[in-house]
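Marked as duplicate of an earlier ticket. Keeping the data here for the record.
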Amino acid sequence: MEWRDEALVIGLKRHGEGSVILELMTAAHGRYRGMVRNAHSKSMQPVLQQGNSVIAVWRARLDEHLGSFAIEPQHLRAGEIMQSGGMALHGVNLLGFWARLLPERDPHPHVYAAMLLVADHLQDPALAPALLVRFELAVLSELGFGLDLTQCAATGVSQDLTYVSPRTGRAVSRGAGEPYRSKLLSLPAFLTGEPLRQLPSCAELLSGFALTGYFLERHILAPRTLLPPDSRRALMGELQKRAVAEVSNMLPGD
């Protein structure tokens, strides 16, 4: 058995003295694991890092076997992610966490493409969180719990969508939702599909994470008795600090 595919490194675990079990999200074969020998050599160690893009050749005697990988570097972004620290590191760990909830060896090309987009912008603290929220929406959709944010569930209009029903996961317009706003979730403008004229504020990003978090916990995590990952809590903590700083900067000086 053998295949060749492009992939994103999402994790690895030491196996014996010189080998690792490498976990990849591939373009056409889904999430795959395999053994890499001589993984701690000077040439391979920098390649086998979370967030790097590689070309992988997987071989095994039988399809159900763990198999082994031969790895070629493609786009080594892990060094920049580590230098960026904080939000970038939380982001790459969060990508891996959500990817592991997808069935192993099941192709998810749309999720893979979304992961690459996020990975390419993890060093941008202004853009990465917005892309991560959109990635969480993609995971919900891929697992069969996609939200309908295209039109109002009550009126059918596609403009001024500001709420989401926690029961149905459908958008609600400002006019239709205002009487029930205390029972609805906030829908930030950057998730409505309208042109992004400016980057979302930290408050809008936190609203986005609150929205996806509600449905991820309800449909994905709770049935598996899982808690939200530490990387997600840490990322939101970083955003909360930035939100406080944004508000402080808006206040008039003494």
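See parent ticket for discussion. The helical segments are 78-84, 86-99, 109-120, 128-142, 174-177, 202-221, 230-250.
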